[in-house]
Design brief:
The structure is a homodimer of 183-residue chains. By secondary structure, chain A is mainly α. Chain A contains eight helices and four strands, in the order αβααβααβααβα.
Chain lengths: 183, 183
């Protein structure tokens, strides 16, 4: 695990989740029997993110810890902003408000063709169940984010053995950690 | 009931609620055992509002119906924007995005002193349980909204017999309905 390689001061969280509130959102948005529009979906993700920042990430950063999140802001920009057509700037604005301005120092984008990702996945959740079309729009959106912010969003080729991906991600995180001033 | 007095084409909804999504939000935000920050709270209300507009209010307006909602946008401005200190403009911006620009033609503010309202209430929900201090800030916020938009937000003195309040609200709604152009 990446967070173990980073040492005791690293903290792993996931989105949506990481708090009681966020896990409740997670269960909700992934439920294939639920049906709701893109605005409600984006707002639920932002709400979960607000709680994760308030309850977990900000206190951890204040203690000097490194926080590694499985998905964060950029996932909302790709899924809701770009792939669902809500607008990247609009979704970014709501999330900046939700996180009170907290933005990741580094986002690692694990690039893989949707078909290869599906072949790896087990049971499909509500997002995966929407099929290859959504996943291709999401992939294009991540590519665009990596092009727009090449310093902060780093692309890692993920259709390789886990060890090689792990090593590259770890090197990127260590470099980012060295570059970030103490908060 | 107001909506009955308005005739068959009127539709009554409540917030949060009115959709499966919104009723789930309602249960959540009113649960006294839940604890979450003001940003997450505001985003949940906005998500429920987005779904109510998408699934219920816009289709009803498109059919020429009058929609009466027990709470809407202005409640979020008063509770989350003003009383919780998030900022009225910020909360308004998020909600304009959530409702895709839908704003009530008329908001009726039922003005009553918090102490008198508490005397009427039965079991307290999560908001009421926060006590008189929050309720007084909310009251002040509604007064401000009515001062800022005297045409759209109308103040009705509610510490009177129900029949008198009903008659005044009905007259305001009928006047607003006559003034609204067909959509």
């Amino acid at each position: 695990m990446l967070v173990e390689a980073l040492g005791d001061e690293a903290l792993a969280v996931r989105e949506p989740g990481g708090t009681r509130f966020g896990e409740r959102v997670r269960e909700w948005v992934k439920d294939p029997s639920e049906e709701f529009g893109p605005h409600a979906e984006a707002l639920l993700f932002a709400a979960a993110r607000a709680e994760l920042c308030r309850q977990v990430i900000r206190p951890a950063l204040a203690e000097g810890r490194v926080v590694v999140s499985d998905r964060f802001l950029d996932s909302s920009l790709a899924y809701q902003g770009a792939a669902r057509g809500l607008g990247v700037d609009e979704v970014a604005g709501i999330n900046r408000w939700a996180t009170e301005g907290l933005v990741p120092d580094l986002t690692v984008y694990l690039a893989i063709e949707p078909a290869a990702a599906f072949a790896r996945a087990g049971q499909l959740d509500r997002f995966e169940d929407e099929g290859a079309d959504l996943q291709e729009r999401v992939r294009d959106a991540y590519e665009q984010l990596a092009d727009d912010e090449p310093g902060r969003v780093r692309r890692v080729e993920a259709d390789r053995p886990a060890g090689a991906v792990h090593a590259e991600v770890l090197a990127l995180v260590e470099a980012a950690r060295a570059a970030v001033p103490a908060r």
